[in-house]
Task: inverse folding
């Protein structure tokens, strides 16, 4: 068992409720089963460990009316759900990468309130539910991720196989964990250690305050495991590595260079007689130790300078930040841009379009009160569920002379009809800047991205349209279509050069998106431009007026509520492009050197494709 994986299991066993749980990303394998077995052994004897299937119903999860017992007893009988039954235990959430946002909200509410409030079917009850969760994420690619709202409420994120296979760490027994659980309430967190964790979270770009709270709880659990009554620096470093590092969204800014950096880089043998400068304390360390300090911030706690002062000039917060930075998984920050687009997808977007109400066919989404008219389907279960709480009163209201008394009295107000939603079609509209030099640099990439999307449309039944703007107007180069041959012919004849009528292009994109929505389809707008607008709405030249018209058009487009992506194709990110993205409510993506494949992945992220 790897060192950090075993440490996470031990810390979770010490404080399962306070730490929330673990987001475990790994396929079904022997390594994952071994970690789950270790967690089971470290938990106190008799702790419930329940597996939750992906498509569990609300009644089985939260509880509800026991229909059979209610009809037999003649009074409402409550059925306790899985969340209430698992109080004091651990839940294993299967296939968390496919969990819906609604299911994640239910689990998140239980983790926040530590209770289940049942208010349905005439019932009003509150059950205690103090538990931890292990979300099993079996996603095969970066596109498959569990809901961010659930991952934010779990302290640890464990990726099997991330560390070297030979890495070993300390091992704990169930007796040591029990002793740490008993000691946890007396462990003190000094203010300096708490401030160091908060500063490290801020430097790593972690916006959620839960991360700092979880890090503080993990530090206290680590101190309890070590038999300490107060959190020390080594415990804070463990919390920073295991809680903060996987949540990092940026690297901390580098420290400012010393005033005499040129002299600091000279070999010591050539400058023994030079006068001391402000960088002299840094030069007191032998040169061969500097690479080791840069590679592993954690090991620096044991390295001492020749003068006996370890880590001279460093504060506690800097040492904790180094420990977290050294534990950031390789390649994590490089994938953040696309991952942020995937996590920010809206419910109205998707590869199959927005959900549309349909009374007769589609995906069932519950029931509503009403009579089955115009071919609507009667929901028998929900009708009986609505009638069950009133059976005693209705039987008492029956005439005494009634010879054949019905077992169930159903009235008109109990009727419920099934509801359905049907998936609509998605149309991706590319708005291409074909003006001047941008056409020479980016037109080939746009053609490749459109062709890659069209290749998926055959299976997904999506459509793609292309708008090109240059000179003084914007024209429809390719109407919504799924024909790959037609798209290639249209894109091959796209000319380039001229001014940049950005405002007219945004207006034309909004008009096409409105037409697509009126057909019952879901439009997705992708604007590829360098944002160097120089043609106003009336066709007159002038950068100032053209920029103001473009911002006004973008604000008007935002009122439509369309899913949009603005790709800044200039060599350097343009402030006007960022302002346009904010004005139209679009995702902003700067791709100075991106190819067709990168652009295709970004569009699919905004479209919500998994």
Result:
């Amino acid at each position: 068992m790897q060192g950090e994986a075993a440490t996470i299991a031990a810390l979770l066993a010490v404080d399962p409720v306070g730490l929330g749980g673990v987001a475990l990303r790994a396929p079904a394998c022997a390594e994952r089963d071994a970690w789950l077995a270790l967690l089971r052994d470290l938990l106190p004897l008799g702790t419930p460990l329940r597996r939750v299937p992906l498509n569990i119903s609300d009644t089985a999860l939260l509880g509800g009316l026991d229909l059979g017992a209610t009809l037999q007893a003649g009074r409402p009988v409550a059925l306790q759900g899985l969340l209430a039954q698992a109080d004091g235990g651990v839940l294993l959430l299967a296939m968390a990468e496919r969990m819906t946002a609604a299911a994640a909200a239910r689990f998140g509410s239980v983790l926040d309130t530590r209770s289940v409030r049942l208010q349905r079917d005439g019932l009003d009850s509150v059950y205690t539910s103090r538990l931890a969760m292990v979300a099993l994420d079996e996603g095969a690619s970066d596109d498959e991720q569990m809901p961010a709202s659930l991952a934010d409420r779990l302290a640890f994120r464990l990726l099997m196989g991330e560390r070297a296979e030979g890495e070993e760490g300390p091992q704990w027994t169930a007796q040591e964990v029990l002793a740490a659980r008993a000691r946890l309430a007396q462990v003190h967190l000094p203010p300096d250690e708490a401030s160091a964790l908060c500063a490290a979270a801020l430097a790593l770009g972690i916006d959620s305050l839960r991360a700092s709270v979880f890090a503080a709880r993990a530090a206290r659990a680590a101190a309890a495991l070590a038999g300490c009554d107060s959190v020390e620096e080594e415990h804070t470093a463990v919390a920073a590595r295991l809680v903060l590092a996987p949540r990092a969204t940026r690297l901390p800014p580098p420290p400012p260079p010393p005033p005499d950096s040129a002299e600091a880089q000279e070999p010591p043998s050539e400058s023994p007689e030079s006068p001391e400068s402000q960088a002299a304390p840094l030069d007191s360390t032998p040169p061969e130790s500097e690479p080791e300090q840069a590679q592993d911030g954690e090991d620096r706690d044991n390295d001492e300078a020749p003068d006996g002062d370890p880590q001279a000039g460093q504060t506690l917060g800097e040492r904790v930040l180094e420990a977290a930075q050294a534990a950031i998984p390789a390649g994590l920050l490089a994938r953040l841009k696309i991952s942020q687009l995937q996590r920010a997808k809206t419910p109205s977007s998707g590869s199959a379009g927005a959900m549309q109400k349909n009374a007769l066919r589609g995906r069932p989404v519950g029931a509503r009160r009403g009579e089955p008219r115009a071919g609507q389907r009667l929901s028998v279960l929900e009708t009986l569920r609505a009638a069950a709480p009133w059976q005693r009163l209705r039987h008492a209201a029956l005439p005494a002379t009634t010879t054949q008394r019905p077992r169930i009295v159903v009235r008109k107000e109990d009727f419920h009809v099934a509801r359905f939603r049907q998936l609509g079609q998605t149309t991706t509209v590319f708005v291409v800047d074909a003006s001047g030099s941008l056409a020479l640099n980016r037109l080939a990439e746009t053609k490749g991205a459109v062709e890659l999307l069209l290749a998926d449309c055959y299976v997904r039944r999506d459509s793609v349209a292309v708008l090109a703007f240059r000179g003084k107007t914007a024209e429809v180069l390719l109407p919504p279509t799924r024909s790959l041959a037609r798209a290639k012919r249209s894109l091959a004849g796209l000319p380039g050069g001229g001014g940049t009528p950005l405002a007219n292009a945004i207006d034309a994109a909004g008009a096409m998106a409105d037409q697509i929505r009126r057909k019952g389809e879901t439009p997705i707008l992708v604007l590829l431009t360098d944002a160097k607008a120089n043609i106003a709405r009336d066709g007159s030249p002038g950068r100032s007026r053209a920029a103001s018209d473009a911002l006004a058009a973008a604000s008007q487009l935002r009122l439509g509520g369309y899913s949009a992506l603005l790709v800044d194709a200039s060599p350097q990110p343009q402030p006007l492009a960022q302002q346009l993205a904010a004005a139209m409510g679009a995702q902003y993506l700067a791709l100075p050197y991106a190819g067709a494949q990168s652009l295709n992945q970004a569009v699919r992220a905004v479209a919500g494709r998994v």
